[in-house]
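One chain shown below:
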Amino acid sequence: MIRSYLKISIAVLKRRKFLTFVNLFGTVLTLSTLVTGFAVLESMLSPDGAQRRQAHILVVNHVGLIGENQANRSGPGWAFYERYIEPMQSPDKTSFATAGSPGSSYVDGREITSVLRRTDAAYWTILDFDLLDGRTLAPDDVDRGRFVAVINQATAGRFFPGRTALGESIAVNQQSFEVVGVVADEPETSRLAYADIWVPLTTAESDYRKRWLGDGSVMLYVEDPARRRAVQDEYRDALRGFEYPNDPTLYHTALSSADTALDSIAATLLGRENGRAPTARFVAAALLVALLAMLLPAINMANLNVGRIFERAPEIGLRKATGASTRTLVGQLVFENVVLVFVGGMLAFAITPVLLAFLNRTYFAYGTLGLNLPVFTAGLLFIVLFGVLSGAYPGWRMARLEPAAALRGLGHA
C-alpha cells in the first residue's frame, strides 16, 4: 500500500510543477532555518571538546546584591566565591575563572586581539582540554602567581608561525607570559572553555581577592549528574544567610543561582527573575517560535493543497463511491504531503551544512557547528510535524466532499 501511495504522491507532485516548487521552496526555507537554529542550541547544550562533561557542571555567572537603597548586579567576585561557594560540601570540585575578555598584543607592528581568561588550577581538572603540546596550568603556577600561559592552536600559529610555541614569551595587555602549553581550539559556543590565552588568576594586576562582584564565572562539578539538585539546594540555602561583612547595612540579600547549560542560555536571552533563570519560559517561547515558524508556511501550503484537492475531486468522488473510507483518503493525502515535505527536508539537510559553515566562518570563533545525530533526529521530527500540520486542513476539507458533487467535478464542501 505504501508503495502505491508513494507512486501516486510522485505523480501528483509532477502535475503542477510550479505549485510543487512553491511548496518545496517554503518547506526548504522553514526546515533549514529550524535545523540550523537547533544545531546552534544543541552545540551550546551538549558541546564537544573541553566541555564534553557539561552534564556534570553547574555555573554561577550572575550575582545580584540588594540593599535598601541600591542594588548591584554582575558576575561573582573572588570574595563572594571564597565566602559562599568554595566552602560548599555537595560539589566534588569548584573553580573560579574570569570570563573571556579582549587582550591586545603587538607582533611586528601589528595589533592582535585575543580572548584572555584567568583561571585557577581546578579549572583544568573540570574541563577536558585536548592538550597538543606541553602542559596545562598547575596548582603551583596559580599559588605562586607565575607568569605562564596556555594558548590555543590558532594563537600559536598567529604568534609563532612555523616553530614551537613552548618556552616563547607572549605579551598581552602589557603583561608578558611564558608559553607552557598548547591546546586545541575551543569554539565560541563552548562558553566555559572558549578563549585564546589562559593565564593564572593570581597574575591579575588589580587586587581581585577583595571583589564581591566582578567578571567571574564559577563552575561546580559533580561526578554524578543526579546530584546537581543537591548542589543547587545547598547554594540556595547558603545565600539565605547572606551578609555583606564590609558594611552589613549596605546589602542584605544576594540573588544568584547555580545554573545548568539550559538555564544559562535562558538567562542570557530573557534576563533573570529574582536572580533565577526563566528556563520554563524560555522553553515555552522556543517551542512557540518553532511552532509558529512551521505554522505560517504550513497554512500557505495547506491553501495550495486545497486547490489540488478540488482538481482531484472526480478521483476522490470515485474512490468514495467505491467504498474508500474518509480515514483512508485523509491518510493518503497526509502521506502525499509528508512525501513532499520529506523531499523538502532532504534539500534542507543539504543546505543546512552550508549555513552552518557560514556561521562557523563569520559568527562563531573556531565554530564546529555541523549535522550530528541529535540535529538530524530533530530535523526528521520537524519534517513529520510540518507534514502533518500542512496536510491536516486539506484532509479535513476533502473529508467534507460529497461523492456525487465530487464525481461531477464540482468539488463543493
